[in-house]
Design brief:
The complex is a heterodimer of chains A (133) and B (144). With 133 residues, chain A is an all-beta fold. Chain A contains no helices and 10 strands. Helices cover 0% and strands 44% of the residues of chain A. Chain B has 144 residues and is mainly β. Chain B has a domain of 75 residues: Immunoglobulin-like, CATH 2.60.40.790. A 4-stranded antiparallel β-sheet of chain B has the order 1-2-8-7, with no helix packed on it. Chain B has a 3-stranded antiparallel β-sheet with strand order 3-4-6, with no helix packed on it. In chain B, a hairpin with a 2-residue loop joins strand 7 and strand 8. The longest helix of chain B is centred in the N-terminal third of the chain and has 15 residues. Classes of the chains: A mainly beta (133), B mainly beta (144). Strand 7 of chain A pairs antiparallel with strand 1 of chain B, so a sheet runs across the interface.
Chain lengths: 133, 144
């Protein structure tokens, strides 16, 4: 993979729904990857503490929420700003929810990135069928 | 006495940040190429008058970020690595990756040599103290 330069991109505010909590909510950038064992989600949530993350699967919808920590802003007065801060939310509808093992979802937060592993159900894993003579 | 209310705090912070968003300030100069440079930064003053610079770099490790100072210039360098190179495994790929470099010019009354950098939950915070000479000083008046 060749090197490339990072360009800033503006945060996408979530506007289609009104939230019960006031304040701006942003759409975090997400990578979704699949391997034979699971569906992996990597979600950029800078400034969110471990205990402020919620991962929930309800019916066929996976919900990823993060509340940004404001403690580090105490006593600070902005003098120049290029980005805003806010909570994060993303919803994904799974086409085949029955193919996943919702009881064993694993989530962890590393350096501001939420990693979610949604394991595949045993029945959905690829199987090699031996060809016999 | 003011009660700390996280919801009001978030609204206030968002409003404060919004009111200054992308407006040039006289205090800290970012050079002519400030727009379109990664990472975007927010600059604050704390109660002591020190400068606090904050940037969001989720997924980076502190050891992958290089902060250097030279005279009054502070430079942030690094590379956000791409995950696995096998693109076929991805359903979605939105998280940006690549190299970055950003220089920030500070006013003369800051002690760039004493700058400190912290990295927590994907957010880098640089604190640059005000130079001792620039701090307010009380002069005792003595009888002649």
């Amino acid at each position: 993979m060749t090197a490339q330069d990072l360009a800033p991109k503006e945060k996408q505010e979530v506007k289609e729904k009104e939230h019960t909590r006031p304040g701006r909510t942003y759409m975090p950038d997400v990578d979704i990857r699949e391997d034979e064992h699971a569906l992996w989600f990597l979600v950029d949530m800078p400034g969110v503490e471990q205990d402020q993350v919620e991962v929930e699967m309800h019916d066929d919808v996976l919900r990823l929420d993060g509340r940004v920590s404001l403690e580090d802003y105490q006593g600070l007065t902005p003098v120049h700003t290029e980005y805003n801060v806010g909570n994060y939310t993303r919803r994904f509808t799974l086409t085949n929810p029955q193919h996943f093992d919702r009881e064993h979802i694993v989530a962890k937060l590393v350096n501001g990135v939420l990693e979610v592993k949604l394991p595949k159900a045993e029945t959905a894993k690829p199987r090699r069928i031996p060809v016999t003579a | 006495m003011a009660v700390f209310n996280p919801f009001n705090e978030l609204l206030r912070l968002q409003h404060d940040l919004e009111s200054l968003l992308n407006r040039p300030t006289s205090d800290v100069s970012f050079g002519p190429s400030a727009a379109g440079v990664f990472p975007p930064v927010n600059v604050f003053r704390d109660r002591q008058g020190d400068v606090v610079i904050r940037a969001e770099l989720p997924g980076m490790k502190p050891e992958d970020i290089e902060v250097t100072t030279e005279a009054r210039r502070l430079t942030i360098n690094g590379e956000r690595k791409a995950g696995t190179t096998d693109d076929t495994a991805y359903h979605r790929r939105e998280r940006p990756w690549g190299k970055f470099s950003r220089a920030i010019h500070l006013p003369a009354d800051f002690d760039v040599e004493k700058a400190e950098a912290h990295f927590h939950q994907g957010v880098m915070t640089l604190r640059i103290p005000r130079a001792q000479a620039a701090k307010p000083r009380q002069i005792t008046v003595t009888a002649a």
